[in-house]
Design goal:
By secondary structure, this protein is mainly α. It is built from six helices and two strands; from the N terminus they run αααββααα.
Amino acid sequence: MKLTTRSRYGTRMLLDLAQNGGGGPVRVSEIANRQGISVKYLEKLSRILKKAGLIRSMRGSKGGHLLAKPPADISMGEIVRALEGDLNLVTCWTERTSCPRLKTCATSKLWQEVSKALLERLDSMSLDELLKSSALDGTSGACEPGKPL
């Protein structure tokens, strides 16, 4: 499984909001400058994140985006699901009709267990924890532009 730029950049956007949103709404252009991500792409991600209830927007001259809830209440699983959709590694056991070999497949249970472990790990970590761990190791909580998160 490979996460798309939606998850990697969306997480960076949310981390940026958590770091810089204490003084009020943060403009997409400011996030774009700090994170090295295009404004257009962040605007697209902001619509998805807003629909998922992870951010809220304010219009006007002092407008921008804010987290919709505290970073401790936003799980990494919630972020990735909002941006990626279904996170199961294979669909054979979620869509029972997709594989005629499901009943005899030796690997189906393995993929199910790996998917479950991935989801449990993502659900167990909050945006706040990620933010704190990046502060402890001296990073900004986001990778360099163009590099995987």
